[in-house]
Amino acid sequence: MSEALLVERLHKSFGTLEVLRGVDLEVADHEVVCLIGASGSGKSTLLRCVNLLEPIDAGRIVVEGIEITGRRVDVNRVRRRIGIVFQAYNLFPHMSVLRNVTLAPQLALGLSKDEATRRAMGLLERFGLADKASDYPDSLSGGQQQRVAIVRALAMQPDLMLLDEVTSALDPELVAEVLEVIRELAAGGMTMLIATHEMSFARDIADRVCFLDGGVILEQGPPEQILSAPREPRTQQFLQRIIEAGRL
Amino acid sequence: MSGAEGRRGALIATLSTVVFFTALALLITHAPGWPEVQKTFFDWGQFKDSLPDIARAFLLNVKIFLIAEAFILVLALLLAVVRSLPGPAALPLRILGIAYADFFRGVPTILVIAMLGFGAPALQLKGVPLSTTFWGIVALVLVYTAYVSEVYRAGIESVHPSQDAAARSLGLTHWQSLRTVVLPQAVRRVIPPLLNDFIGLQKDTALVGFLGSVEAFKQSQIDAAATFNYTSYVAAALLFVALTVPLARFTDWLVLRDRRRRQAAGS
Q1: Which residues are within 8 A (CB) of A73 and not within 5 positions of it... i.e. 6 or more apart?
Q2: pTM of the full structure
Q3: Residues of B with Cβ-Cβ distance to A51 under 8 angstroms
Q4: B62-215 fold
């Protein structure tokens, strides 16, 4: 298996707060890796760094063999190959669902309007959103909006998808439909790096779970091992709190 | 609200309005100087005589307004975009933008008009127009561009950074994100304050008369000087109001329509 993503000694500070203190992470092609850890442990920051939405302070990030943190890298070209889905959906409210999905393929990939529309409708159909194509984001439920956001990222046909707590803003009854979409992507072989609080989902879908604590990956391994028999005391404490909160 | 309550509300509103304006009218018409004021400002004969000339001159105000507005809308957007450019390399441009906005918002409009209108033609440069109206329009464009760019800028800043982040994460360039995601949302939000500045501009076209261009205010001044009667000013004022009131109502209507559309989308 080749590396889809390689992160080495990644450091990132906001002012005096050092959020990432030397993260090392590998994600193989078609691998699904879940990042778990307390709020503020740096999960979102790590994902935003991989997508170059945050400049990094030290270390390097390699995607499909190309160092994206080098000096002369075209960040737009890099981002076209990495899809990211945010906790708050971030759909464009002044555009229809269809336009949300066709915008980037047309502008960034140079697809014709017909091509982009065909690709978008195919994806919307696949995820049960075809009848919403001409609706505006405001009129959709949170679950539908998040599915549209996933479709919008997929329309760029990325090599790697980053999911940043995509169900955290959703009402409990809407979580399942979004997780279902992610399961389908995993089954289709999409390489994904997923920050999540849904432990049972992580156990279900992940090839590997990484526990992020104090700005480093403290422990990683197969989900059964990390979630059921963690070695590190910090991991045990974290999972204990999750169990007490009734989320495992 | 039930029908009975609604009718009661309307009745109270009508009554209080009638009472207030009747009292005001009585107060003014019973003032000691009223007969004199009535003769010099509200002379029906003078009004009828001066109105056609002033209305004709008012067309120049409308022309100045339309030409200036077209330039202002484009240049102000450009200035706002320059001021929101990211990165250290754009610092000189940002400083220039700030200096421009500070200067032209600080200097009284009438001074800019006077300096350009009297100064620029006096240079006697070849190819520089001598028309006072031309320089009046240039001055209004310079001043209002500074104001309107602030309105645009407020709009740009009101669009949450996560919108730009989402656009950039999809591989759009800074300009593509600005053009398709940030500016459309920003401009939509600032339409009411933009139209508010239009109303201000519409009124300030009268300042160009100061240079000698015969627009509505200048024409009414000419009439007043010839007849020793100020009714022509009232005629000019009514013409300005006749144009700005529909603009104000149009603004309200746009705001309301936008709100209804959002509510319809949300339900």
Answers
A1: A66, A67
A2: 0.83
A3: 169
A4: MetI-like fold (1.10.3720)
